[in-house]
């Protein structure tokens, strides 16, 4: 038997196997690194977009017992942005990024006990915020403003427009105060007040339940980053959530008697998956406004410029062009 050729053949086979193993290892390494890269770069739309959102410096203004923080950038038509309870001016980053700042001056406020604003000695309600924002407008000599408001920010906007000729238009997303009051509303409010009180009391399990709740409030993938920030502050914002939701039970927070006083155009940008400001319960009040437009977002929960900013910006631009 000729041993030498067999040995050489074994060597060649061994070399080919080694090369094959090395190739497999290299492929595995490339695959792992690709997956890690994909995980880091193919994040949610909100997380990816947040890398390119502008960083707007905060300014402060002392009004009564509050140091009010706000962001102010751009020139042109003034857009005053009023956020939802438990949120902050950070909700409006997409507007600073998506609207032309040579045409619009965007001012977004942190309500007391929200964002970077200080606490107030008064309970936070739309009635209180209306007076505070009116003083803000007067101090900065802001006129002919268009107000973009969400939830309690939308309610505050309606109160301002009811007796303020300097409000040129309203773009409202799921504002409080238009729902037909009754047993359903009362039961919902009591349930939410009890829920947020658990956070004030430091009850175990509240953080997890709050996260589950906010998966419904901001359900879209684009809102992942903002939702995570709000959920991380659940215990800190629980007291002001108790305050604001308690205020919704007060008679003066029912905005329906004010509708006849609103003469400026109104855009309702409604998130249809909202379980608390339900479209069907609010539609009768919306239809009482003298001049209104309605756009519906079927898959959004509460805050369209956070959940689907590009679509909201397109809708609000059409509204602004019509003013």
Question: Can you offer a commentary on this structure?
Answer:
By secondary structure, the chain is α/β, with parallel strands linked by helices. The protein has one domain: Rossmann fold. The chain is built from 12 helices and 8 strands. The chain has an 8-stranded mixed β-sheet, sandwiched between helices. A hairpin with a 2-residue loop joins strand 1 (58-63) and strand 2 (66-74). Helix 7 (206-217) runs antiparallel to helix 8. The termini are far apart.
Describe the biggest sheet? 8 strands, mixed
Structural class, by secondary structure, is alpha/beta
Named at the architecture level, the CATH assignment is: 3-Layer(aba) Sandwich
Determine the mean pLDDT: 87
Low-confidence stretches: 1-52
Per CATH, the superfamily is Alpha/Beta hydrolase fold, catalytic domain
Shape category: globular
**Any idea how many domains?**
1
Question: How is the secondary structure organized here?
Answer:
Layout: H1 3-41, H2 45-50, E1 58-63, E2 66-74, E3 77-82, H3 93-98, E4 104-109, H4 126-140, E5 145-150, H5 152-162, E6 167-173, H6 183-200, H7 206-217, H8 224-232, H9 234-247, E7 266-271, H10 279-286, E8 292-297, H11 304-307, H12 309-322
């Amino acid at each position: 038997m000729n041993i030498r050729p067999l040995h050489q053949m074994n060597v060649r086979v061994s070399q080919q196997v080694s090369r094959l193993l090395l190739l497999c290892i290299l492929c595995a390494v490339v695959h792992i690194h690709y997956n890690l890269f994909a995980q880091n770069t193919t994040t949610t739309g909100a997380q990816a977009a947040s890398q390119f959102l502008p960083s707007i410096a905060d300014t402060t203004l002392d009004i009564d017992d509050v140091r009010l923080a706000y962001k102010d950038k751009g020139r042109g038509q003034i857009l005053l942005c009023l956020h939802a309870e438990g949120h902050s001016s950070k909700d409006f980053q997409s507007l600073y990024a998506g609207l032309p700042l040579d045409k619009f001056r965007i001012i977004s406020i942190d309500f007391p006990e929200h964002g970077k604003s200080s606490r107030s000695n008064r309970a936070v309600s739309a009635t209180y915020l209306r007076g505070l924002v009116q003083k803000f407008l007067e101090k900065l000599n802001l006129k002919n403003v268009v107000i973009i408001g969400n939830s309690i920010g939308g309610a505050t906007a309606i109160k301002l427009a009811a007796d303020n000729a300097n409000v040129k238009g309203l773009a409202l997303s799921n504002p409080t105060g238009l729902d037909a009051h009754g047993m359903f509303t009362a039961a919902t409010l009591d349930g939410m007040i009890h829920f947020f009180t658990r956070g004030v009391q430091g009850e175990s399990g509240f953080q997890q339940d709050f996260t589950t709740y906010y998966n419904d409030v901001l359900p879209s993938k684009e809102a992942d980053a903002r939702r995570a920030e709000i959920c991380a502050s659940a215990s800190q914002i629980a007291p002001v959530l108790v305050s604001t939701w308690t205020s919704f039970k007060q008679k003066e927070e029912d905005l329906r008697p004010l509708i006849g006083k609103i003469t400026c155009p109104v855009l309702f940008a409604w998130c249809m998956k909202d379980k608390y400001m339900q479209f069907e319960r609010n539609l009768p009040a919306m239809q009482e406004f003298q001049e209104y437009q309605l756009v519906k977002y079927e898959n959004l929960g509460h805050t369209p410029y956070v959940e689907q900013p590009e679509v909201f910006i397109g809708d609000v631009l059409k509204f602004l062009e019509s003013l």
